[in-house]
## 1
Amino acid sequence: MKLILASASPQRKVLLEALGLKFEVIPSGIEEDDHPEPDPANRARDLAWLKASDISKKNPGSIVIGCDTLVVADDGTLLEKAKTVDAARRMIEKQSGRTSLVHSALCVIDLKGKLHEGISSSKVFFKKLSDQEIDWWIGTGQWRDRSGSFQIDGLGQLMIERIEGDYTGIVGLPVYLLGKLLTEAGYPLGKIDN
Amino acid sequence: MKLILASASPQRKVLLEALGLKFEVIPSGIEEDDHPEPDPANRARDLAWLKASDISKKNPGSIVIGCDTLVVADDGTLLEKAKTVDAARRMIEKQSGRTSLVHSALCVIDLKGKLHEGISSSKVFFKKLSDQEIDWWIGTGQWRDRSGSFQIDGLGQLMIERIEGDYTGIVGLPVYLLGKLLTEAGYPLGKIDN
């Protein structure tokens, strides 16, 4: 039974490997920026489905995992991937000393084309950062290609006091939810029945 | 400035490496089982200090990091490292469907021998596990050498619905707190001033 991760994210690959699963990585060609849905949780769900669906159609006989992770500031602003240093700085300034919400949606498409979907939402509590600390973070460059311009796996952890939710969902692939959906989809995941 | 991690834990080494720091691993000879303090948070603090102190004395001119992680079930029972399959099973059964508390204490000893101490406490919410799931987990063997007989970095994550606190503290080295203590101890940690 072939398993495909429809994502180019190296972090997601690492998390899936940690479960001891054999899988192939085939990133979808879905353009996130083109999607019109503005509600963050619905947007994440839609994008996870679009990505899984895109790859599932091209790879019959596979179980496909689609994922999308979005960050929402506590004033409701959607924080996607910053394209410039200035945009990254504004995102970090907005989150400093505050709590962001991370929605990580999953869509698993099984061998019969049936969808198994869910969303893992977590709170991230940021340290109140000085200008010097924000300069440091922007200087590391590690905000690139990360929703909300932060990361929690590595140096970025120094800015995060605590979380409520699933750490792996914040990284980008909520493992507990994935276990549940893969089991529903008939994929043999050791003997755990999530 | 030489930095020493006074712990044999491979998970702690990985977390410290993720911060891009250069350090040496020198496990202390402290016997955890011999320590008389029963209160979990105080016990973790004492052991972190004893480990750091043991290595600091033998390595003058170094900054030493000592750590201790303890798990407490929601009935207050201290769950240390299980020595047998039966003990591991009892620990997992006790935590199934319930919330455990993980105390991760750090003690950093600076070049002048001054202590910088703190504790990171996190809640871990376990799935209600079936007998078959408990069999599976015990069969993986991954409970060995882990306080509370679970782990959150890898397969064990499939049993954990959510956390409140610092994921890295549950793994064994609370990175946010470490940043704060290393900065207090005068160790140059990039430009972040935790």
## 2
Amino acid sequence: MIPDKVLKSLVVQTESKLVMVVIDGIGGLPVRGKTELEAAKTPNLDRFVPHAICGLIDPISYGITPGSGPSHLALFGYDPFQYEIGRGVMEALGIDIPLSKYDLAVRGNFATVDEKGIIVDRRAGRIPTEKNKEICEFLGNEIKEIEGARISIYPGREHRFVLVFRGDGLKDDLTDADPQKDGLKAKGTEGRSQEARRTAEIVNLYLKKATDALRPFHPANSILLRGFSKIPNIPTMSERFKLRPAAIATYPMYCGLARLMGMEILKTGETLREEVETLKKYFDQYDFFYIHFKKPDMAGEDGNFKMKVIAIEEIDRILPSIFKMEPDVLVITGDHSTPSLLKSHSWHPNPILLFSKYVRPDDIRRFTERHCQRGQLGRFPAMDIIPLMLANGLKLKKFGA
Amino acid sequence: MIPDKVLKSLVVQTESKLVMVVIDGIGGLPVRGKTELEAAKTPNLDRFVPHAICGLIDPISYGITPGSGPSHLALFGYDPFQYEIGRGVMEALGIDIPLSKYDLAVRGNFATVDEKGIIVDRRAGRIPTEKNKEICEFLGNEIKEIEGARISIYPGREHRFVLVFRGDGLKDDLTDADPQKDGLKAKGTEGRSQEARRTAEIVNLYLKKATDALRPFHPANSILLRGFSKIPNIPTMSERFKLRPAAIATYPMYCGLARLMGMEILKTGETLREEVETLKKYFDQYDFFYIHFKKPDMAGEDGNFKMKVIAIEEIDRILPSIFKMEPDVLVITGDHSTPSLLKSHSWHPNPILLFSKYVRPDDIRRFTERHCQRGQLGRFPAMDIIPLMLANGLKLKKFGA
């Protein structure tokens, strides 16, 4: 791994444009002999691949299945073992809650407890989302502040919500206020350090008040909290790589992640076409673009092989509009695999393609997991993509004399 | 990366002979479809490759373009991020100045300042090398010692020189005495630590005296100094690998680098033939040989594709003389790529070939970037070459029981 100090000392700002296309969950596993990428018809990729070099990336490390947080950290050149993005923060980013360094975010469940405080249903019978909204609005009005910390509650789907405490000196080294299974007593949080004790007291006071206030809302008469977290102190991509980076994504979570690393979030629409139009519109104003295509991951999570193939083909059709912008360096890859066979993220490496004027094109002819494995880039950690893109954009000076 | 302690505990001295042929700047980029190696006729390599295994090495890390210092450290099995060879030291090695641990070396420029001390030309109009020699001789006689530190000044080309301070307790954590651009005032150096303050004072006294003495030498009426450095404290290859290593190179810098790692420098001539004859002459006396062929890099730096092809073909013609010596382990590779397309070092991996009795020859048929990418060695960091050579020379015991 390149020491941060070294990389920082080598970067120079230039006019070259870098574009990173991230196809969420692109990698797959064979079903009846073919992966989704192998089954898809991708004439535009097939025409482009011979001009590029290919390889396989490991999002994190052999065998590690990444969540979206760590996989995106790695794609953007950050060590996912060094910077941790907690569950509370990820949930907040996912529903577009802007977080500041004063905010402590935590993921919540409405739950059902009996008269002795024993949890009988960790999901409160999966109350309807509409009911959730109603309860959150009530709680938000009922409890606005505790000992100087301002409280905000944001409904999610069904029984889920995000709770944010805002105040000076709040800490996130807290145990979950959640015994993790039914049949146990609901419990408060504990500070893992001396400094976190005051925060734990505030949270526990909130829990008490909230449980009292929720009495009329059976089955949602209690709450469980897990994943207390604050946004990590991450140096921006501008600081580290002298880039002016911008992000284009339709889902708030990816915008939120990009914002954590100091990217400008470009307003865009819901479709691939709109995302690519946004890229075109802002192409002159930034020198690094992250553009995120979500659909293959959703189809993979649903276990829908055919839908994932269709999502890939749809992306293939839009790619020529990106090629036409002639970025100096273009990378196409994924954040992680989502094989429809597994219906979930997985540990498998993803194909990657890199185009610039300064590559030795290899003899790879298709952008698939098995074709790319023979490419010149070899198999390498996702964290090395950014140095490679910077080098190909002639944005890295020589190391040493 | 193999921990140093482990590697050291495994090495044994044996009679087997290891030869590392380093073709400077060997890797290239395609011009009209072919790289220099692909365009070259290399019948001798072509005959040899089927008996060897091939791969690609990354000198430092994906995307990092190495200077000769870091790339040679890596080739010789040293972590280039751990050991830094500063610019002053590299410049001194490049003009064959022997350095001891008491020496502080720095790269100098003669420059032009106006009557207010503002730099108007950082290169003093690129004075002729002859003039430079004359001024250095004058300054060398004028200022021989400052507060116990002996001073030596060595002319380079045009406006460049190397200055060496020799004395007890000199430190190299000093800022450059160089504002880096025209229009600013020439400035002294500052110690980055308490311990370096005395050294900074000595340097600044020198600067004052030199500037006074240079008054009659307009446009070379001032000097700028950058890259203060001492030779790093590097354990020798003998200590680390129980080798008796020797180096054959026509350029002083490569001899100097090899000497830093404890290699014996074998006196040789200017031609490939003379270098190979030197290898033959000393073949019985050492068990590790580094032999350096410079020309392809020079042609690459000049952007001269054809000349690089010719340089490669010339090397191919001399190789049978090395094959005939029957080294137990033979590696042929490069320290970094120097594509004529870029006219500079680059970040691209280099082909590598390893021959010994104990390889599983792969099906690679030519020693080129794109053929070697499919070789059995895969793509790997240059730092792993030495362990691989030691193993193939049966110089490494089993690790663990």
